[in-house]
Amino acid sequence: xxxxxxxxxxxxxxxxxxxxxxxxxxxxxxxxxxxxxxxxxxxxxxxxxxxxxxxxxxxxxxxxxxxxxxxxxxxxxxxxxxxxxxxxxxxxxxxxxxxxxxxxxxxxxxxxxxxxxxxxxxxxxxxxxxxxxxxxxxxxxxxxxxxxxxxxxxxxxxxxxxxxxxxxxxxxxxxxxxxxxxxxxxxxxxxxxxxxxxxxxxxxxxxxxxxxxxxxxxxxxxxxxxxxxxxxxxxxxxxxxxxxxxxxxxxxxxxxxxxxxxxxxxxxxxxxxxxxxxxxxxxxxxxxxxxxxxxxxxxxxxxxxxxxxxxxxxxxxxxxxxxxxxxxxxxxxxxxxxxxxxxxxxxxxxxxxxxxxxxxxxxxxxxxxxxx
Length: 372
Prior knowledge:
The protein is of the alpha/beta class. It is about 30% helix and about 25% strand. The protein is built from twelve helices and 17 strands. The strands form three sheets. Strands 10, 11, 12, 13, 14, 15, 16 and 17 form an eight-stranded antiparallel β-sheet that branches. Strands 3-2-1-4-5-7-8 form a seven-stranded mixed β-sheet. A hairpin with a 4-residue loop joins strand 14 and strand 15. Helix 1 (about 15-25) packs parallel to helix 5 (about 160-180) and helix 4 (about 120-125) runs antiparallel to helix 7. The longest helix has 20 residues, at about 160-180.
């Protein structure tokens, strides 16, 4: 008779919940080799808050244990444990209670993006490919155990971290069910991870503070998509912290950057300017420009459109523009009195760059930790 694997499940978030539901569904089918599913959840940080996994376990009447569970609740009751987005290192004393190694579902192509936040770092780095890895849990270290199974898939264009998680969760859950249906077979075929690897550090608030001289326009867009479930990107302006909303890449908004932004505009990172014929600010990065449609002034608890913010702060883009305009008017007047007109090249320049450009100021930021 095929061996049946009594499985303890450790998880927290929606990615983990998808995997748990798949195990429960399979365990209820005839001939399943997954059984006796019970759940371990981390203690709630707030009394009224439960993780998606803990909430589902309670609603589904699955036995629910708070981490760390008592040894008496584990010994001789389970064969293995499935660990998905759990958020805690499993101590040796826990791992030694189980006859078979624990299996971990990790949403990256290990050894790339080991650590706490693989999905966010995948997007922040602009990776084109990602996937899911099933690995054996090792003692004392995260995400370094032998690989049991991997599946690769492309990262969709314009994908954010929530969408990427939703895309990979069904893949991971399918892999987990397949693996546990023949767990010892997969353990026997496991392969050590390649040397090297990259680390996906825990997401912290400092990652949302943009340091313009260190990032390209693409970096800013990727960072916004990577952090969108936790933080809004931040900048400083005249000592006032700002949240930046509606961020885009200028190259995706206008067909010709050179035509939209005249040569007289400074290319210093952090430079902010506005065109009166647009509904966004333009902010210079190390390379390229990003657009910002709305700002929230944190210190003033005030939300402003890009146009309103520009009107509040704008100065003439070029300090000499007034004198240049005055000189141009005088020349035109003299030419008219002489029966002539403005020189063709000067008139063409004025037509190409109407008086819609306004320098707003400079955004600044503070050093970023982690990511690119």
